[in-house]
Design a protein that fits this description.
Elements: H1 3-9, H2 16-29, H3 33-42, H4 52-65, H5 70-74, H6 84-97, H7 101-110, H8 113-122, H9 130-138, H10 144-156, H11 161-169, H12 175-188, H13 194-200, H14 206-226, H15 263-284, H16 288-317, H17 322-344, H18 351-379
């Protein structure tokens, strides 16, 4: 593709999905197209670096279509770009791909707070256990966004310490940290946060009050829904005692036949199983409907990150049936977004129907479609 063509294709006014599909198809004929685009971003050779909106769109598309770590290393100079939006967008693209955690730690030490926060956020979608140590290292960062993103990362990884740390942040002397704590309470959506938020809405800081009020409204709405047991009780069970735990026979568990024998993909699939178990526990405790807001947000995040990673890997491996697999991903993504829309608009959605959807994701997509590429890659 010539530079003039590239600038036309990546015009910010064009739909991102359409541009990503077009570039993905072009990469099948020109496997080094992502490298050429990276050179364009850096203004290398005869290329003149694009304007800011075009550069941001190129980064968004590369994030979707380019696999492996080569892109991350090539665009790492963008972490020092003069434009802060380009720096932060590049930080996300790089952190999602980089498997060398020594390199990630070194970049985090040098990065400004805005870039540091985005790199930490990008690690939410990374299944590597080393992410937990990075999150722990930055949960007490001097910047509130960095600390907040690190705490949410710990929560996503299932670390129990995250809740207590959020509660401590709520009494931080700096109002920026208190506002971030209120934002975290909205994302985590734990009923125990309600009393804390009721205190925070009387905070002397306007930003803390506003953030706390938004979180409290969301918590109150989901708690009100949870009081109707008809929306949350698992079929065939009565309401459980508060805090009780269902037997292991009730829960979906990771099974050897789910494995595609690719460690990074298996870790991501295990994260989906963990989300299913969280919904099952919430339903067991009679708060299934209240948990759906939180669950669907995590599903959208999970689908975006996991599907992008898997498609990039399959493209790099030359998987012949990639187009069909991408279409399966598009179907699941549409279903997740439709589910999110229904919940956000107040439509009655039962925990049982969502559970059926997630079980189908396991049995139809992972057990069938993913196993097809796993078998094909083993043969090749």
């Amino acid at each position: 593709m010539h530079p003039e063509d590239i600038r036309a294709v990546f015009h910010p006014g064009k739909p991102l999905e359409h541009t990503s599909s077009l570039v993905g198809q072009a990469m099948e004929a020109e496997p080094r197209l992502d490298i050429e685009l990276a050179k364009l971003l850096l203004g290398q050779g005869s290329h003149r670096a694009p304007d800011q909106p075009t550069a941001l769109r190129i980064l968004e598309v590369l994030d979707r279509v380019s696999a492996g770590t080569r892109l991350a290393r090539m665009i790492s100079p963008l972490l020092r770009h003069a434009d802060p939006q380009i720096r932060t967008k590049a930080a996300k693209v790089i952190a999602r791909r980089m498997e060398n955690f020594d390199w990630i730690r070194a970049q985090l030490l040098k990065a400004e707070p805005r870039v540091r926060a985005n790199m930490i956020e990008a690690l939410w979608e990374n299944g590597d256990p080393e992410c937990v140590e990075v999150f722990r290292l930055y949960r007490d960062d001097c910047d509130n966004r960095v600390a907040g993103n690190a705490l949410y990362g710990l929560y996503v990884c299932g670390e129990a310490e995250a809740i207590a740390s959020v509660l401590r942040m709520a009494s931080h002397p700096d109002p920026r940290f208190r506002a971030t704590a209120a934002w975290l309470m909205s994302r985590i959506d734990e009923p125990k946060f309600a009393n804390v938020l009721k205190t925070m809405v009387r905070d002397e800081s306007r930003s803390v009050k506003g953030s706390a009020l938004k979180s409290l409204v969301r918590l109150s709405r989901t708690a009100g829904i949870a009081q109707d047991p008809s929306h949350s009780k698992p079929a065939g069970t009565g309401p459980a005692e508060p805090g009780s735990i269902a037997s292991d026979n009730y829960f979906v568990s990771w099974r050897p036949e789910y494995s595609v024998h690719i460690d990074a993909i298996d870790r991501q699939h295990q994260a989906l199983v963990a989300l299913i178990r969280q919904l099952q526990q919430a339903m067991w405790e009679g708060r299934g409907r209240a948990f759906l807001d939180t669950l669907v947000d995590r599903l959208v995040q999970y689908a975006n990150g996991h599907f992008r990673y898997e498609e990039n890997m399959l493209r790099e491996q030359g998987y012949e049936s990639l187009a069909g697999h991408i279409e399966q991903h598009r179907i699941l993504t549409r279903q997740v977004l439709e589910l999110q829309h229904r919940i956000q608009t107040g439509e009655a959605v039962s925990g049982a129907s969502v559970m059926a959807f997630l079980r189908n994701w396991l049995t139809e997509h992972i057990m069938q479609h993913d196993q097809e590429y796993a078998a094909a890659l083993r043969i090749t």
